[in-house]
């Protein structure tokens, strides 16, 4: 067995391990996050329609073991006053 063959034989298991790690690190979160993010955006739309505010952020979080969405909006105040920042936590 020459050196190149030896390296190929030794590297084959490492390629599989690297591929498995890549799947866990890069693909698995993408399978979970889009649904959570989509739910969070739906919650954000609800908060916007209820408050008449402007969306600043919508962040999926876990609170007491439950999936929630923290929605932060900017709500207009009375005449001449600064808008107020309001955060609402919506269960998912």
Q: Which helices and strands, and how do they pair?
A:
Blueprint: H1 3-51, E1 54-63, E2 66-75, E3 84-91
Antiparallel strand pairs: 1-2, 2-3
Tell me the fraction of residues in β-strands, as a range: 25-35%
Output the structural class. Answer: alpha+beta
Radius of gyration of CA atoms, rounded to a whole number: 23 Å
Helix tally equals 1
* Total count of strands: 3
- Proportion of helical residues: 40-55%
Shape label: elongated
Mean model confidence by pLDDT:
78
Q: How many structural domains does the protein architecture include?
A: 1
Largest beta-sheet details = 3 strands, antiparallel
Tags for this entry?
alpha+beta; 1 helix; 53% helix
Summarize the structure in words:
- Helix content is 53%, strand content 30%.
- The protein has 92 residues and is an alpha+beta fold.
- It has a three-stranded antiparallel β-sheet with strand order 1-2-3, covered by helices on one side.
Give a short synopsis of this structure.
Strands 1-2-3 form a 3-stranded antiparallel sheet, with helices on one face. Helix content is about 55%, strand content about 30%.
